[in-house]
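User: Can you recover a sequence for this backbone? Please restate the input before giving your answer.

Assistant: Of course. Working from this structure:
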């Protein structure tokens, strides 16, 4: 939702650029409600049986096994999740508009940002949203540090992998 909100806040327009993000968010929200039982209104239930046709390319279909009123409640819950996420994105970006602009400028310059680049941009702005907690630097570092950092040459040499994650055997086979 952040892409759509950023378009609205900075460009004062809506484009088709965020279309895929909106589609994916809607699909995830529907799965949260129908598959994972993550709805306060409907409770921990699963809606819609999934049938898999093993023949002719293994088509996957879903049959509606609930009433029209339930379908309306599902749609409402999906809308509430998406609307809540939209508002949360609007608040976060509104509170950090200066950082958004600096990130955009950096992307125009470099096209790709490393985690170190992002950390620098975030810390230069004092982590505006988190500064009130006094932990801005720690939170910024924690949020921008990748969980699985890329292997350095030294680590790649120890594992027998090159920078593309291929090991010596893969390289010899090619």
């Amino acid at each position: 939702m952040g892409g759509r909100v950023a378009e609205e806040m900075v460009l004062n327009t809506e484009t088709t650029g965020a279309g895929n993000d909106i589609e994916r968010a809607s699909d995830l929200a529907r799965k949260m409600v129908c598959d994972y039982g993550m709805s306060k209104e409907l409770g921990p239930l699963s809606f819609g049986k999934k049938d898999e046709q093993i023949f002719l390319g293994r088509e996957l279909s879903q049959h509606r096994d609930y009433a029209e009123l339930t379908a309306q409640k599902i749609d409402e819950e999906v809308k509430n999740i998406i609307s809540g996420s939209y508002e949360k994105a609007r608040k976060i970006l509104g509170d950090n508009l200066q950082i958004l602009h600096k990130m955009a400028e950096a992307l125009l310059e470099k096209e790709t940002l490393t985690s170190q680049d992002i950390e620098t941009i975030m810390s230069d702005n004092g982590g505006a949203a988190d500064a009130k907690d006094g932990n801005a630097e720690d939170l910024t570092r924690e949020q921008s540090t990748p969980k699985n950092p890329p292997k350095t040459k030294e680590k790649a040499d120890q594992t027998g992998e090159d920078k593309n994650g291929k090991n010596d055997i893969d390289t010899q086979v090619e």
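That completes the design. The helical segments are 2-11, 19-34, 68-95, 97-110, 115-124, 136-144, 153-159, 168-173.
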